[in-house]
Amino acid sequence: MAGISDDLLHWLPISAPIISARKDHFDAGLRRDGPPPIRIDKGWLVFYHGIDNFSEKRIYRLGAALLEHDNPHQVIWRCSKPILEPRESYETVGYTDLVPGGYKALRTMSTDDIDKLAEKNITT
């Protein structure tokens, strides 16, 4: 959750997201902060990652936005397409995506089971 502070010690929460969902965009389903904002001449440059809500693979993509200097809750500009996205299968598929039950199930699997799973998915 975002917040606002006059002294950087005492914070008031802001419930509305600064980077909101956009229908039919790469960040329609989920948006999360990236590295700290960068102050540039035109405002605050923000990098964030988002996933769509219309793809089964739920691929994370990198987006960028520019926020006003004096009012960083005001978005001046936002990319309409991702500025970076994975394309190769080794970038988009991982063990937790392939195991029913995700990471919790993966933690209980033996090394042999994980190797078999990896071999199966490399050949398919």
Any key phrases for this structure?
alpha+beta; 23% helix; 5-stranded antiparallel sheet; two-stranded antiparallel sheet; 124 residues; 4 helices
What would you say about this model in short?
With 124 residues, this protein is an alpha+beta fold. The protein is built from 4 helices and 7 strands, in the order βββββββαααα.
Oligomer: single chain
Tally the helices: what do you get?
Answer: 4
Q: Based on DSSP secondary structure assignment, what is the total number of beta strands? A: 7
Total domains, how many? 2
Largest beta sheet, briefly? 5 strands, antiparallel
Principal-axis shape: elongated
- Secondary-structure-derived class: alpha+beta
Overall pLDDT score:
81
- Poorly predicted runs are none
Spell the H/E element sequence: EEEEEEEHHHH
Strand content: 25-35%
Work out the radius of gyration.
19 Å
Distance between the termini: 41 Å
Helix proportion of residues, in percent?
A: 10-25%
What does this molecule look like?
- The protein has four helices and seven strands, in the order βββββββαααα.
- Strands 3, 4, 5, 6 and 7 form a five-stranded antiparallel beta sheet that branches. Strands 1-2 form a two-stranded antiparallel ribbon.
- 23% of the residues lie in helices and 27% in strands.
- β6 (61-67) and β7 form a beta hairpin.
- The protein has 124 residues and is an alpha+beta fold.
- The protein has helices at residues 89-92, 95-98, 102-108, 111-123; strands at 2-4, 12-14, 30-33, 38-40, 43-51, 61-67, 75-78.
- The protein has two domains: 2-86, no CATH class; 93-124, no CATH class.
